[in-house]
Amino acid sequence: MTNRNSKQHNEIGMIGLGVMGRNFLLNVADHGFLVAGYDKDVSKVEALRRESKERNIQGAENIHEFIELLRKPRAIIMLVPAGAPVDSVIKDLLPHLDKGDLIIDAGNSYFKDTDLRADNLAVKGIHFLGVGVSGGEEGARHGPSIMPGGSKEAYERVRPIFEATAAKVNNLPCVTYLGPGSAGHFVKMVHNGIEYAMMQLLSETYDLMKRGLGLNDDQLHDVYNKWNNGELNSYLMEITGKIFSKVDEKTNKRLIDEILDVARQKGTGMWTSQSAMELQVPIPTIDLAVAMRDMSVYKNQRESAGKVLQWPMLIFKDNQNTFLNQLRHALYTGMIITYAQGMALLTVASDKYNYNLDLEAVARIWRGGCIIRAGLLEDIQNAFHTRNDLPNLLLDPDLSKKIIENQEHLRYIVCRGAELGVPVPALMSSLSYLDAYRSSWLPANLIQAQRDYFGAHTYERIDSKGTFHTEWEKK
Ligand code: 6PG
Asked: Distance from the CA of 157 to the CA of which of 49, 151, 176, 321 falls in 20 to 30 A?
């Protein structure tokens, strides 16, 4: 390593010293790399300096100073909010860069923006990587899951840094080169779509247990903790259990009950649904998860509607333990179906956008560090190991066996939700997805007939090739 007193010695630079950027920089420095950080907000640079202590980190207060601290050819990571801030940072950087320098966008950028930026920068001789980073503040600091996409050659330059800083599962880093262009940001987007669906599924089990069974926060804490010790083991399950025991410092009551029931979003779930619609891949559980965040925002209307559109909120009377057991199986089934939808989207996108994704590798790097890490991902990795062109996880022999064994519980829970009047759209849509996917016949012939009836859109026949039109009103 170069002497830290010389200028232009740092192996990598970071722009954007918010919590994620600063934590990731500290993580990189902890692994012995020389790093420099820059943020327009001087207080963030000062915060970095305070936290740096004896580490190999230098902070810069302007872009010129920052560029001077980097070894050539330069490698610069940016961790700034998606959208305009990314373009603004690139614009500020460009006059200071030379051909062969590398910019890495490690934020949650929209994948089409990533393709555009990569093309524009390539013309100027600047390399660009679109890299998904998952794991929140803690992950960034101690080991995230990293999803890189772009030029393989550019990736090789930073591979040692990513492999050192990523989470490890079975001693393997949760990072691998995923594919060209926007492959990394597309995979991260779908990761977030799955994250939305898992959070919605968990919220529905919470609702069923709170309003349906009348469980209190202590009981909910116990249930989620118990579930986390079995086949449902996952990061989101773990934090859900912990959430129910957290006491609010202000009121001394449980914090969960002081939080307004309005969910916010930054857009990655919506992008997943939009992309799936564009590619004509059904991902209804993820769609519903986005829709339910949208529904939560209509708090005032929901309050008014509740007074008019009444249905007696029944409390479940039968055996609670049996119900909880069935709920656990139903949630597990919903989780498998959610992953199946996300992976099916990646399969089609890989083909359409020439990402050439290795889905076994995607499942592997999601097993540690990221928000959707779950025991189930080992089965998913195995499924793609057995058959790397598996079109849908529901066709994997082991996972389909689990679905067959558990589906009755999902059916039971969906019926109870409908009876009680507790909304369980993610569980319901998972079940409907399953039933549709296993239906060799669907009533789409009626839709074709209707289209042809009112718009002469034609239809295909089961007994001959070609397209046909009927004069439906002709006697
Ligand atoms: C992650 C998270 C992270 C972010 C979400 C939150 O993988 O670490 O997904 O990227 O916390 O984007 O998204 P919403 O604000 O849309 O819920």
From this structure: 49
Ligand 1 centre to CA of 136 (Å) is 7
Structural element, H or E, at residue 89: helix 84-93
**Rounded Cα–Cα distance for residues 325 and 438 (Å):** 25
Pocket perturbation via mutation, ligand 1, pick of 19, 23, 108, 273 by most ligand atoms within 8 A of CB = 108
Question: Is 152 a residue of the active site?
Answer: no
Widest CA span of the chain, in angstroms?
Answer: 92
User: pLDDT for 320-353, tens place per residue?
Assistant: 999 999 999 999 999 999 999 999 999 999 999 9
Fill in the DSSP letter of residue 12.
Answer: E
* Distance from the alpha carbon of residue 193 to the mean position of ligand 1, in angstroms: 10
Strand order in the sheet with 75-78: 57-60, 35-38, 12-15, 75-78, 102-105, 127-134, 145-150
Domain residue ranges in the chain:
12-181, 188-437, 444-475
Euclidean distance between CA atoms 393 and 400, whole angstroms: 8
Q: How far is the CA of 386 from the centre of ligand 1 (A)?
A: 31
What average pLDDT does the segment 144-162 reach?
98
User: Which class is domain 188-437?
Assistant: mainly alpha
Residue 296 CB less than 6 A away from ligand 1: no
C-alpha angle with apex 141: 40 to 18, nearest 5 degrees? 20
CA torsion sign for 175, 180, 185, 189 is negative
446 Ramachandran zone, left/alpha/beta (phi>0; psi -120 to 50): alpha
Measuring from atom 1 of ligand 1, which residue has the nearest CA?
Answer: 134
CA dist 158 and 73 (Å) reads 12
- Please work out whether the CB of residue 193 comes within 6 Å of at least one atom of ligand 1: no
Active site residue 250: no
CA of 192 to the centre of ligand 1 (A): 6
The answer to whether the beta carbons of residues 224 and 236 sit under 8 Å apart is no
Residue 20 main-chain phi, psi, to 5 deg: -65, -50
**Residue 370 near ligand 1, beta carbon < 6 Å:** yes
* 177 half-sphere exposure, CB direction, 13 A CA radius: 16
Averaged pLDDT for residues 68-94: 97
pLDDT score of 117 more than 90: yes
Indicate the pTM of the whole model.
0.97
Shared fold status for 188-437 and 444-475: no
Residue 3: per-residue pLDDT = 44
Contact 27, 51 (CB under 8 A): no
Distance of CA 269 to the CA centre of its chain: 7
Q: pLDDT at residue 6 above 80?
A: no
How many other CB atoms are found less than 10 A from the CB of residue 446? Answer: 9
According to DSSP, residue 309 is labeled S
Q: Domain 444-475: give its CATH superfamily.
A: 6-Phosphogluconate Dehydrogenase, domain 3 (1.20.5.320)
